[in-house]
Amino acid sequence: MTGAADPAVLTEALRRELCATGRLLAAAGLVTGTSGNLSARLGELVVVTPAGVALDALEPDDCPVLDLAGNRLAGTLDPTSETSLHLGVYRTTFAGAAVHTHSRDAVAVASVRTELPPLHYTALALGGTVRVAPYATYGTPELAESVLTALDGKSAALMANHGALAIGPDLTRARDNAELLEWLCGVYIRASQLGEPRVLTEAELVAVIERSARPWRPEGT
């Protein structure tokens, strides 16, 4: 295929963005070595990171281009082992991008909790309480199904003894959500060291939603 119909041409900018996002995640410490993977959707096409390549060493041509059935349309390297999870995200959500990390605090929380409760109101950006998907071997349909169930209605899910998945309308938002989730996990760990964390109530979270929906006005007006 040539010209505008060539998937490699259609997705060139997205492949570059995937590489840039991988470098940002590595610099932030959310991925190390070849751990973690990313994807982004463009219509009926999905660009994913390849298997076995460190995210801070990616080049655009390294990133395979797939259709929603998983057929490889461009790229010479094998797609990430978590391809079934990424494709499942696009079949079941309106997400435009997905970020899977093995970040330290997310792994720690996901190794001891069945959910991450909302200690801070910014958890609302992820849907409030973050569920922890039961453990399954990486790259398996069982893991993909488990994580997609935990992700239902949320912008992120933790993966027991494994890591985390964050989604968003684009790579910037998905990366922001991954960073927020790691921060919230860190807050939970530190709060737990001091005592029993105080979890925000549903009424308190609703009040935040209502407050954010109101236009701001100077006090006294």
From TrEMBL:
One Pfam family this sequence matches: Aldolase_II
Lineage of source species: Bacteria, Bacillati, Actinomycetota, Actinomycetes, Streptosporangiales
InterPro entries: Aldolase_class_II_sugar_metab, Aldolase_II/adducin_N, Aldolase_II/adducin_N_sf
One annotated GO biological process: pentose catabolic process
Gene Ontology terms, MF aspect: aldehyde-lyase activity; metal ion binding
Organism (species): Allonocardiopsis opalescens
One GO cellular component term: cytosol
Signal peptide (residue range): none
Keywords attached to this entry: Lyase, Metal-binding
Gene3D superfamilies: Class II aldolase/adducin N-terminal domain (3.40.225.10)
Top-level division of the source organism's lineage: Bacteria
Protein name: L-fuculose 1-phosphate aldolase
Residue ranges occupied by any Class II aldolase/adducin N-terminal domain in the UniProt entry: 16-189
